[in-house]
Design a protein that fits this description.
This protein is of the alpha/beta class. It contains six helices and six strands; from the N terminus they run ββββααβααβαα.
Length: about 170
């Protein structure tokens, strides 16, 4: 297995990219609680010459510039069955879309799973590309985000449709 990593700057602060073979296996915000230890990141790679990391950086740059709504970079996760079901559901949330933890829980077996859904969302190893920031608390409350609520709000604002922004007073 060819594990490697690189650090890139972004409008939400430094990001750690971790690749394994031909897939992005991690995209972590600085200070993210569940970032694996450095020994698991693999060798340091040059984001300019590593094809997968270069693609990831380019797609992130396009996303932050408002020029990309979906990611093409292959992403691979390695969770338990329930986490994988949650992460698969996150991948289907459209750009600018929102869903609650409770809604995902209901889809996956019942509202009683909301806390488990929240834990799985919080452990999403490929933030932004697998859009965990689009999951909100009951009533649309801004809650829980491994990258911090300020970053979550920035990502939600970035994806807000222009017509919705135009209708705001502030």
């Amino acid at each position: 297995m060819d594990a490697r990593h690189a650090h890139v700057d972004s409008p939400v602060g430094p990001l750690l990219l971790v690749a394994r073979d031909d897939a992005l296996a991690g995209l972590y915000f600085q200070g993210y609680r569940y970032t694996p230890p450095p020994a698991a990141w693999g060798r340091r790679a040059d984001v300019r010459t590593d094809r997968l990391l270069a693609q990831t950086r380019a797609e992130l740059d396009e996303y932050f510039a408002g020029q990309r709504q979906d990611f093409d970079v292959p992403a691979a996760t390695c969770g338990d069955d329930f986490q994988e079901r949650v992460w698969a559901r996150l991948r289907t949330i459209p750009y600018g879309g929102r869903i609650t933890y409770g809604d995902i829980a209901a889809e996956l077996g019942g509202k009683g799973l909301s806390q488990s859904v929240g834990q799985a969302v919080g452990r999403n190893p490929v933030s932004i590309v697998i859009p965990c920031h689009r999951v909100l608390g009951a009533g649309g409350r801004l809650t829980g985000f491994g990258g911090g609520l300020d970053r979550k709000q920035l990502l939600l604002d970035l994806e807000e449709p222009a017509e919705a922004r135009a209708g705001r007073l502030f």
